[in-house]
Amino acid sequence: MQQRRATALSALFAAVFGTIAAVHYHRLGLTLAHYDARAHLVVSRRIFDSLYPGWQQVGAVWLPLPHVLNALPVQIDWLYRTGYSAVAIAVASTALAAWAIAGLIHRATGSTIGGLVAMALLVLNPNVVYLQSTPMTEPLLFATTFLAAAAVARWSDVRFQMSKGRTSPVAGWLLVAATLTRFEAWPIVGALLVLSLVVLLRAGLPVGDAFRRVRGLAYWPMWAVIAFLIDSKITVGSWFVSSGFFIPDNPARGHLWVAWIEVWQGLGRLSGPVMPWLACLAAIAIAGTFAARRTIGTIGTRAEVPARTTDATGTLFVLALAACAILPWAAYYRGHPVRIRYDVPLVGAAAALVGAAVALLPRAARAVVAGIVVAIAVWQAPPFDRNAPVIVEAQRVAAEDAGRTTVTAYLTAHWDGQPIMMSMGSLAQYMHDLSAAGFYVRDFLHEGNGELWKYAMRTPRPYVEWIAIQEKEDRDEIFRQSRIDPRFLTGYARVSSGGGIALYRRCMADCRSATRD
């Protein structure tokens, strides 16, 4: 009963606080400030609103679960333009994450305070506060990975396996959900499986039996990954899209240590300089506690299990959440520009680690340490800080957005209902902006339109009247093609530009495209 009350309290606080935060950032006009927030809405909308609607519109650059969950709500124009349905999903996801981590820690340690600390460090972080007030997908990552960690921790309890069987559909489906949410979940899922094997072996199961049980659980996320790779191959012609959407200009390129320093510094900027060190100490304490405690009971045969497993064994699975650092580390090593948002999953991992470590302290010290930790976190990263790194980063394209009103005005005045060729990889956010002027996703020819897109990329004139190109970034496929093939824009005239976008219209007679700025 105490566990249920504590976890319910954590979820309720997160939901209420998240709703207040969402209203706050809406009033500031920041709900859709981040370009990816609008792009996520477009991907959800295009599943049904497209030249070729269907499952192939789910896409391959991003994982599908966030867009599938929001696909039906955003068919309502008001929800699509405001993003409110996606915000509701984000707020609910944060509440679920708080509920999951509080429950995991309480079940493993019996400590209510540790779970509340983990919840507070997550929910009160200004960058998390902002992202859960937008259509971004990091909150859903927190929910699915925290729930998966709690479920795998329970599945790894040998007593649970004896009462419920070797397989756990709940744990399996949650691993699938995490796998299909964001790529940061992939190393987390792998770490959860490895740690479950360690726990089963420590509980006394024979190596072969433990391996077979973990293998059965691993099939769930494995098939999810295979399904995604097949979908990627069918929709974009590549098993996995790992390039073409960024310019490798990071000085950390090819330098593992420099890339790691960027990840470490990013977490420090997001949560304050103390929190990364506290998270490291917490990880050491959790691992040390697991290593120091003994398993009670022995296994003589495969049919026998110990009477109970070690105390606080479940906290070991919190370590898996830190595996999300692998993704930004690898991205920076490959030269991806630093994006502070890529470190946000580490904020959740640090919160869970510190909360679990507080729960492992002697009972008399927990409340004092918890108060100090939360106070330091709130002092160094105030919940509604307008200068929080993610908020600042979200507004980095505000000037470009404002400059595009010229192009929007021209399209509104002259558009004749013919498809507009536009790269969703670079201008999805502008597609969403145009919805306020009455444009739908089906009005655009983009990468999700299969063979028609491929033919138009060779010779656009027979297929499209209009072409919009983002000329400031090489991530725009049309821009790259126009550089490779000087004849690409033959027969088109440049009719408007602004905010880094050039708009071309097909000429009625032979003409030469205008020279670029």
How would you describe this structure to a colleague?
The protein is mostly helical and 517 residues long. It folds into two domains: 341 residues, no CATH class; 109 residues, no CATH class. The chain is elongated and about 85 Å long.
Radius of gyration: 25 Å
What share of the residues lie within helices? 55-70%
Total E-strand runs: 5
Major β-sheet profile: 5 strands, mixed
Number of DSSP helical runs: 23
Q: What can be said about this structure in brief?
A:
The protein has about 525 residues and is mostly helical. The chain has 23 helices and 5 strands. A 5-stranded mixed sheet has the order 2-1-3-5-4.
Architecture blueprint of SSEs:
Elements: H1 2-27, H2 35-45, H3 65-70, H4 77-82, H5 84-109, H6 112-123, H7 126-131, H8 138-155, H9 158-164, H10 169-179, H11 185-202, H12 207-236, H13 256-271, H14 274-292, H15 326-333, H16 344-360, H17 363-380, H18 389-394, H19 398-403, H20 405-414, E1 420-422, H21 424-435, E2 444-445, H22 450-458, E3 466-470, H23 477-484, E4 492-498, E5 501-506
Parallel strand pairs: 1-2, 1-3
Antiparallel strand pairs: 3-5, 4-5
List keywords for this structure.
single chain; 517 residues; mainly alpha; 2 domains; five-stranded mixed sheet; 23 helices; 59% helix; elongated; disordered C terminus
